[in-house]
Amino acid sequence: MFGDAIQKMKTMGVRQVMLQVLNFATVIATGLMIWKGLGLALNNESPIVVVLSGSMEPAFYRGDLLFLHNPANTPFEVGDITVYKLNGVEVPIVHRVLETHTLRSNPLKQKILTKGDNNYEDDLGLYNGREWLDREHVIGKVRGFIPYVGYVTIAMNDFPWLKYALIGVLGLLALFQRE
Fold first, then answer.
1. How far apart are the first and last CA of the chain?
2. Cα dihedral angle (46, 108, 71, 54), rounded to 10 degrees?
3. Distance CA 101, CA 108 (A)
4. pTM for this structure?
5. Closest CA to 108 of 84, 73, 134
6. What pLDDT, on the 0 to 100 scale, is given for residue 145?
7. CB neighbours (10 Å) of residue 78?
8. 3-state DSSP: the chain helix, strand, coil percent, rounded to 5?
9. Are 97 and 133 contacting, i.e. CB atoms less than 8 angstroms apart?
10. For position 41, what pLDDT does the model report?
11. 60 pairs with which residues across the strands?
12. Catalytic residues
């Protein structure tokens, strides 16, 4: 299997190999530019997230891919499904807004209390000693989702070798594809 690939690489020539490497780098750069462009357009650092737990069932299930938007001049309302990230917590959390407190002088200065639909209690225990979430902690509001597509990400996190195998196969395909 790899013998044929190595033989094919020897017949390609240096110029063709460099062209294939450049094509592969272009694909990677394009993906990164699309990701950053989505982040700018939707006003958040992470426009797409994957649900990692069952705390939001039946609204969202583990493996659902969520699309986020962070409206800059719109306050969050009770019932909105938000994704937030706290300092010291590695994974963003997807939960519904249970209660909000808004300053009359500045409606965008909000304090938010959240809860998972499938949880018995609110998220005070997750806030690391805080009583409320500040708006700065919220990455975005859920605007849409695709069910189960995020299982690929979950599988790659659960089995790191799968991630490296997939990257290797994609790299070899990009290198040896002549189109």
1. 21
2. 50
3. 10
4. 0.75
5. 73
6. 94
7. 11
8. 40, 20, 40
9. no
10. 83
11. none
12. 55, 95, 123
